């Protein structure tokens, strides 16, 4: 029979740190994406190789308003927002053709460039109508299923537990509908419920009359 001291000596050279295989398994668990929780239609249409933004764009769950260039993903085709007054000068400068002909710059009342008219072109209106954003190319099937689920959703009915009902019955029998007295009762109100919480609990249980019946 081995001596316990010898056993401890034999184990002293062993390291308590995780091995290389254990570290690899730990890192794999950390890198693993959490499971998607939601309706079955959303789980079936969700692509794990895409980002959340790309999945939302493919499912048609993004807003239909134009998205700025700096705030959108380069892999998702979305309608681009029209240039604002701040970057209007740069946009018009990029749109102007690099030719040697002369032209006329049209500005608004604030001095912002709104149009550039060349000699060989006819004058256009001062304010050009903004192009309507292109609709997203989405799959309507998952979106229609999600909309039908949302339309058929109903509020969850909460019921009072047996122990809570017994406690409410004893409180109502002693204090009636005086919720202030219920809240100040140290022996019955051991959970330190406020008068508002007690009132909601009694209402959920059916009211004072039903508890006293």
TrEMBL record:
Domain of life per record: Eukaryota
Keyword Iron-sulfur on entry: no
Biased composition, class Basic residues, residue ranges: 1-34
Keywords, comma-separated and alphabetical: Nucleus
Region described as Disordered: spans on this chain: 1-42
Pfam families: Nop16
Record's function text: Involved in the biogenesis of the 60S ribosomal subunit.
PANTHER family with a match to the protein in the record: HSPC111 PROTEIN-RELATED, NUCLEOLAR PROTEIN 16
Descriptive protein name: Nucleolar protein 16
Source organism per UniProt: Vanrija humicola (Yeast)
């Amino acid at each position: 029979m081995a001596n316990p001291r010898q056993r401890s000596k034999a184990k002293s050279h062993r390291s308590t740190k995780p091995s290389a295989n254990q570290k690899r398994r730990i890192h794999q668990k950390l890198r693993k994406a959490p499971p998607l929780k939601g309706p079955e239609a959303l789980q079936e249409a969700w692509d794990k190789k895409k980002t959340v933004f790309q999945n939302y764009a493919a499912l048609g769950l993004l807003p239909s308003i134009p998205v700025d260039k700096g705030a959108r993903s380069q892999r998702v085709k979305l309608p681009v927002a029209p240039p604002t007054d701040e970057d209007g000068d740069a946009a018009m400068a990029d749109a102007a053709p690099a030719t040697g002909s002369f032209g006329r710059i049209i500005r608004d009342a604030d001095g912002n460039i709104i149009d550039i008219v060349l000699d060989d072109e006819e004058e256009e209106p001062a304010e050009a109508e903004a192009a309507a954003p292109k609709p997203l190319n989405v799959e309507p099937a998952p979106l229609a299923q999600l909309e039908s689920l949302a339309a058929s959703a109903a509020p969850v009915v909460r019921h009072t537990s047996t122990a809570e009902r017994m406690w409410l019955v004893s409180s109502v029998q002693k204090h009636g509908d005086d919720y202030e007295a219920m809240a100040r009762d140290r022996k019955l109100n051991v959970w330190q419920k406020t008068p508002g919480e007690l009132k909601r609990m009694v209402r959920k249980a059916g009211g004072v009359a039903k508890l006293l019946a």
